[in-house]
Amino acid sequence: MSISNAPKAPHFNVTSPAQYVVHIEINRPDKLNAFYDPMWHELKALIDFFSHDPETRAIVISGAGDRAFTAGLDVQAASNPETSALSSKQQSDPSRRATTLRRHILELQDVISSVARCEKPTIACMHGYAYGLAVDLSSACDIRLCAPDTKFCIKEVDIGLAADVGTLSRLPKVVGLTSWCKEVTLSARPFGAEEALHNNFVSRVVPGSKKDLLEAGVELAKYIASKSPVAVQGTKNILDAAYARSVEDNLNYTAVWNAAMLQSSDTERAMLSGLKKRTPTFEKL
Q1: CB–CB of 145/79 below 8 Å?
Q2: Where are the alpha helices (DSSP H) in 85-192?
Q3: So what's the pLDDT on residue 271?
Q4: Chain segment 189-226, per-residue pLDDT in tens
Q5: What backbone torsions phi and psi does residue 207 show, to the nearest 5 degrees?
Q6: CB of 128 within 8 A of CB of 66?
Q7: What is the pLDDT of residues 10-44, one digit of tens each?
Q8: CA–CA dist 57, 187 (Å, integer)
Q9: Residue 164 neighbours by CB under 8 Å, 6+ apart
């Protein structure tokens, strides 16, 4: 793997638990893995690196410690008057303050969007507290698994703002703009793993401990990584493109995409392996 060449990220543990699989673990357990300024930049740098890394075919994202995937934004750090973008000390003029805030919000949005843009499939493995930013981050992932003890909350209404880095844009696409979606976003009430499963936010509640959850996440990532990377990355790209397109437009996009990608040797290898009943191997992409 190319982990040794990955950007330095002191607040994340980066490992390779299986061939072609990268595990990015949020590593601030003493603060319930809550995010403050350096962590945003570190996460984007890691995702951008592994998105283009030919040794990587699937990414698992989890949180260190037993208590939380992430409790969201580190409110104490964010409210520091010396560094906060909300501080009146930074700008006194309302228009200039608004410009500074807009730039700051767009910068944070781009971190979460980098996860959604990642060329490789991403799997969020959530346990414990999964509040605020946890929903932003996991909504940008392709697949969400959780432990039975997971406690979700779209917390932003309780701290006086509309969620602004992804949840309100992506959650309705994940679960549908349903009564339930509006209930949990407008009320900021916590909800559990089974409710998340019932409303299609997670694809699976993994029985057992956090260890069992991570094993399930890595096993799924290994299985995806065993497939043709041309086929997997193409499938992810076309599915994501379908969000903003009509069926007809996306069929045309698919035809253009596959006109190039069907020329890959992966197609022939996959077909022959089925006929000869053997496991295919694929070149890096």
Answers
A1: no
A2: 94-117, 133-140, 167-175, 179-187
A3: 76
A4: 999 999 999 999 999 999 999 999 999 999 999 999 99
A5: -65, 150
A6: yes
A7: 999 999 999 999 999 999 999 999 999 999 999 99
A8: 38
A9: 105, 108, 109, 156
pLDDT, tens digit (0-9, with 9 covering 90-100), for 147-197: 999 999 999 999 899 999 999 999 999 999 999 999 999 999 999 999 999
How far apart CA 105 and CA 98 sit, in angstroms, is 10
State the Cα–Cα distance between residues 171 and 21, nearest whole angstrom.
Answer: 26
pLDDT at 278 over 80: no
Distances (CA, A) of 145 to 82, 157, 215: 38, 25, 11
Q: Return d(Cα 155, Cα 144) in angstroms, integer.
A: 19
Ordered by where they begin, the domains of the chain are 3-225 (3.90.226.10), 229-276 (1.10.12.10)
Neighbours of 21 (CB within 10 A): 25
Tokens of 163: 């969620």
**Using an 8 Å Cβ cutoff, are 138 and 144 in contact?**
yes
Residues whose CB is less than 8 angstroms from the CB of residue 41 and which lie 6 or more positions away in sequence, other chains included: 111
How many CB atoms sit inside 10 A of residue 192's CB? Answer: 15
Its pTM stands at: 0.92
Q: Give the 3-state secondary structure of residue 68.
A: strand
H/E segment holding residue 63:
strand 58-63
